[in-house]
Amino acid sequence: MICNLKHFGLGAAAAASLWAGSALAQEETIKVGVLHSLSGTMAISETTLKDAVLMMIDEQNKKGGVLGKKLEPVVVDPASDWPLFAEKARELVASDNVSVVFGCWTSVSRKSVLPVFEELNSILFYPVQYEGQESQRNVFYTGAAPNQQAIPAVDYLMNEEGVERWVLAGTDYVYPRTTNQILEAYLKMKGVAPEDIMINYTPFGHSDWQTIVSDIKAFGSAGKKTAVVSTINGDANVPFYKELANQGVSAEDIPVVAFSVGEEELAGLDTAPLVGHLAAWNYFMSVDTPENDEFIEKWHAFIKNDDRVTNDPMEATYIGFNMWVKAVEAAGTTETDAVLDNMIGVAVPNLTGGISSMGANHHITKPVLIGEIQDDGQIETVWETPGLVLGDEWSDYLPESKDLISDWRAPMSCGNFNVATGKCGGTAAN
Amino acid sequence: MRILLTLTVWFGLLLASAASAQSLEDLARQLPEGSFNDRAEVVAKIGATGDDRAVGLLNALGEGELRVREADGAVIQVKGRGSKAVGYDPLTGDELGPVGSGSTESIRVNNSLRRAVRAAIGLLTLSSPDAGKRLAAANTAFAAPDPEQIEALDTAIAKEGDAAVRTAMEQARAAAVLASDAPGAEKVAAIGIVARRGGTDALTVLNPYRGDADAPVAEAADKAIAGIERAQQLWNVGQNVWFGLSLGSVLLLAAVGLAITFGVMGVINMAHGELIMIGAYTTYVTQQVIRTSFPGLFDWSLLIAAPLAFLVAGAIGVAIERFIVRFLYGRALETLLATWGVSLILQQLVRTFFGPSNREVGNPSWMSGAFPLGGLSITWNRFYIVIFAVAIFVGLLLLLKRTLFGLQMRAVTQNRPMASEMGIRTARVDALTFGLGAGIAGLAGVALSQIDNVSPNLGQSYIIDSFLVVVFGGAGNLWGTFAAAFTLGVANKFMEPFVGAVLAKILILVFIILFIQKRPRGLFPTRGRAVEG
Amino acid sequence: MASTSFIDRRLGVFLALLAVVTVGVPLANTALSPESGLHVPTYMLSLIGKYLCYALLAVALDLVWGYCGILSLGHGAFFALGGYAMGMHLMRQIGSRGAYGNPVLPDFMVFLGYEKLPWFWHGFDMFWFACLMVLLAPGLLAFVFGWFAFRSRVTGVYLSIITQAMTYALLLAFFRNEMGFGGNNGLTDFKDVLGFSLSSDGTRVTLFVLSALALGGGLLVGRWITMTKFGKVLVGVRDAESRTRFLGYRVEQFKLFVFTVSAMMAGVAGALYVPQVGIINPGEFSPANSIEIVIWVALGGRGTLVGAALGALIVVAAKSWLTSAFPDAWLYALGLMFILVTIFLPQGVLGLIEKLGRGRREQPEPEAVEAEA
């Protein structure tokens, strides 16, 4: 059997070298890794991002590639299996020699690959809204941090809708836990009484929402304007919204603002009963700008289906990809350290009509949009921040992180610098 | 606006006040401008005009159909999308011809504006000839008490003939009185009227007066609230039973097909969940065809999809039996491996053909919304699913007990060689039995498409629960599956309010593990082929 | 007739090959230059190390399924518990190097607002204690679970389903952030073990060798259990439980012993797995993972120990390769493989290999007992 195993090892190595060989024979390329689940529970969300990266690569190659070389995608399927994410990341970097990886969706998949990128000194672009509380030298976070989604949404509800009573409902994992903790601290700071906050966690893929929706209705009967802040994860949303609609919870009575529900999720729903429920993102497909029109047109052409929607993580992928291209061109090489040095400060147009730039904390500046769900499955902007907001990696509203900052520019080069003690808290940069 | 004015006193008054301000045409032109709050005021003014044309205008605004024509800045109503978009005059309803894309800009509506629209329409429809509309208007007024409406409500109450509508109007008036600066005694009386309505709505209105500065008012409110809450606690028990039955019916649907393939035939069918998924996707495809070709039949889509799902899933089941499972009889545990392989392939097939994301399966109108039953609110979709589950179960029992096929199936299960001797084509019966179990899984998929995601992962989320239900009930016994599904459903829902959804589920699992120790063959043990490990 | 000796031909060949790999792969990794065609890159070494842990897990399951007829659909739980025990030690080793710099509390506890370490985390800062828990946590769970189940004579599919319920309940429990095991994210961001950095090649090689030794050891333990008179009784239990009971054997105790030993073996596999992949999370408890273990054993050849290890290596290697080579279609290949092997190779891959070998040597294999489930 060891023969067998070795066979496999050699076989794989041979296949890899053959692949590399044939690529060399044509021309030298820059390899781009795509690490998104194509099967398993997360395939629902991540497959679209794989296609988005492939489209961006395609577009870039039409423009002549980068540094005169064509880009070559290397797609693998980590199958929604977190240890497999680490294995595949290692394979992409160590064996396929990719220059950069676009990938991950869930926090746990990102946590699983972090040590790999750190150890092998490669670059990961992470395009999904997340809980923050992290800044790593080799990772660029192009999705929203809590201050780019949650806090403006709560402000909007408080000021425009006069909400006084809050249900914080989420799936029981780290993103909702952290976001709700930040929101709870924020709401209390704004003078909301503890009894006016209800926090509820449900498991992944929760499908029976009868009890919880009726609890929400009961909570909303205290005579104060009530809203639900939902950090419910992808799969569980469809049954949640169906139950809301059927139990007659309309947006005019108890609006639900969601941070994980975008156009892609709404495509699986009849949105007519949901009109008016809210979503907070940094991009909506309905945004009316020439850049966005062009992006949607290219997407439809690439995917060969005019009904496909675009969403916020796709825009984050778009921004991240363009930033990487620009930094590589500035550095004149795809070598990791040079690209890292050139990434901070890179500015590219986003799809909402502004220019997003990469901060020293490896997070980007974006506008925050609050939108209401329409009956055609789109989300229309009802409010937006006047300017762009920089992602805040360490939340100011949590006692354990309020003293931490991140700055990857020399001489600090630290992801968790404690301004109170004046020391770089964790492991210093390599 | 001088046309068609109704001859009521308050209407006349309103008319006078509105006339002194602005005309409906002027107000309509103001709709696109200003902040949401400014525009909410415009909406209130439109409501106050009392003009009959205002209802149509406000409805169009609420539906998001009002747009500004860029050429001349006129506010028009646009129906239809893309190339089919047609413009109308929002006030007269006259057709203005097709509207090119990009030639108009939408008038944004948000929740607060929608609330203003709802309130304004409520005010306008309080005297509608349609009793249903008047009731809706009264309920709107109740939910958003506004002292300014007292007068209008008084007028409406005075000429209301329908008792139910009248009561609702009186309750709305009481709620408005509570919100006004009326004297304490009047408010205490109002609290009594509101309290008689009961339920969550009344609580919403009463709760703010708990700590009212006026002591008698606060006291009355406290008492009324306590009374409503007592009644609600009782109803809560009923509500939990209902939630439990509803969850139980979902479990029953998911498990009953497995009770045939696994319970009766002894095949550890890991592809069972995927057969449910196939049923859900069949529903999706059926709805797509109906949407594009026969939109009028949409309300029938589920009834059309059900037999199709049964046939599609059943055919796949027969194929699985003929090509795979039949080689594995007598090797029960190995069917687990082969069917696991089948489940991977089916999942990936669906992913390849339909894509990995969720597909939209709509609720027909008769499955949307809820109806009250005493103090309970029962959603139609759950209600029909319970009925559907029980109907399938009864149908299956009849099939097994009353038909020739059922007899042959039981014969083959109990004693295969003897059944074969008697001339039963056992291979055919095996294939059809497996097909039956698979087909029922397909039917379950039709129902589950109404409450859950239709995605390639659909099956995965039901497979474990299905096995647990069948084993807990006692494999091979349909009544066991029935009892197990509802027991687990109700138990789960009674625990959920106390310990939360996750812990409730864990406790159920621990309970099953312990229960199997006591009764190692489940709730209703049977003798039969296979099942033995 | 090699089967009477302690190390039969089958085991001998496997152990010999394992020894070659144990020595050869690290050598090829460290001694040969990267340009050399035989060089094994470190990532490949870690990958094979991970496969070896899975192989040990498969051997553990084969011990209970292949030799005593207990089809456990919950062996992933024992693997994960062993992994968590090791993960908790590695977590405590991070000390103040975490993102928040808290010397005692792991990062996830800091941002979930824990004031102090939960009681069950105490002691894990000591390596010996963690090692003890690697054995005790799964062992104890298996003992208690088995004691109840075997005494009540829960058998067959019923037993399988409640083992599945067990791992499912644990999955849900470990997902809960209140449990204090890091919720969905599990335990990650490990730095070093016993002072050796986990990302250094030396540590990797050591872990690899340890995994190989553990697999060899597991096979020998399994062989010892099944070779003795004890083992013969077990096969009796598997093939005719009631008859064995009537012969006067306390069937429950036999089953309980093997079940517990097997769970501990799975725990060891988990403990070696965690430092090599760098993360342990509740996903390991998922029922699908446990079903996959069963598939490894069946595919390799049930009731042979060596076959189980072989099956695990084949399936996980195939999965690794297919997910890169055919990211969109690998599930078809894997699914088809399961179906074809089940139908055409009832004795598994090992059965096929030996049949081919036998064809040449015409030597009957006495131990290939046709096992009816």
TrEMBL record, chain A:
Record keywords: Signal
Signal peptide range equals: 1-25
UniProt keyword Signal, yes or no = yes
Membrane spanning residue stretches: none
Question: What InterPro entries does the annotation carry?
Answer: ABC_urea-bd_UrtA (IPR017777), Peripla_BP_I (IPR028082)
Q: What is this protein called?
A: Urea ABC transporter substrate-binding protein
Tell me the organism.
Amaricoccus solimangrovi
Gene name of this polypeptide: urtA
Automatic annotation (TrEMBL), chain B:
Q: How does it sit in the membrane?
A: Multi-pass membrane protein
UniProt keyword Signal, yes or no: yes
Keyword Membrane included in the entry's annotation: yes
Q: Which domain of life is it from?
A: Bacteria
Q: Which UniProt keywords apply?
A: Amino-acid transport, Cell membrane, Membrane, Signal, Transmembrane, Transmembrane helix, Transport
Q: Name one GO molecular function term.
A: transmembrane transporter activity
Tell me, in one coarse class, where this protein mainly resides. Answer: membrane
Q: Which GO terms describe its cellular component?
A: plasma membrane
> GO:BP terms for this protein?
amino acid transport
Q: Which CDD domains match?
A: TM_PBP1_LivH_like (cd06582)
Q: InterPro entries from the xrefs? A: ABC_transp_permease, ABC_UrtB_bac, BCAA_transport_permease
- The leader peptide range reads 1-21
Query: Where is the protein localized?
Result: Cell membrane
Query: Which residues span the membrane?
Result: 241-268, 300-320, 332-350, 383-400, 431-451, 463-486, 498-516
The record's family statement is: Belongs to the binding-protein-dependent transport system permease family. LivHM subfamily.
Q: What is this protein called?
A: Urea ABC transporter permease subunit UrtB
Q: Which organism is it from?
A: Amaricoccus solimangrovi
From TrEMBL, chain C:
InterPro entries recorded for this chain?
A: ABC_transp_permease, ABC_transptr_urea_perm_UrtC, LivM-like
Q: Which GO terms describe its cellular component?
A: plasma membrane
Keyword Cell membrane among UniProt keywords: yes
Compartment(s):
Cell membrane
Q: Looking at the record's lineage, which domain of life comes first? A: Bacteria
Keyword hit for Membrane: yes
**TM segments?**
54-82, 126-150, 157-175, 205-225, 254-273, 293-318, 330-353
Q: Which UniProt keywords apply?
A: Cell membrane, Membrane, Transmembrane, Transmembrane helix
Lipid bilayer topology: Multi-pass membrane protein
Principal location listed in the UniProt entry: membrane
Any Pfam family? BPD_transp_2
Q: Which GO terms describe its molecular function?
A: branched-chain amino acid transmembrane transporter activity
NCBIfam families, alphabetically?
urea_trans_UrtC
**Name listed for the protein in its UniProt record:** Urea ABC transporter permease subunit UrtC
This chain's source organism reads: Amaricoccus solimangrovi
Q: What is the lineage of its organism?
A: Bacteria, Pseudomonadati, Pseudomonadota, Alphaproteobacteria, Rhodobacterales
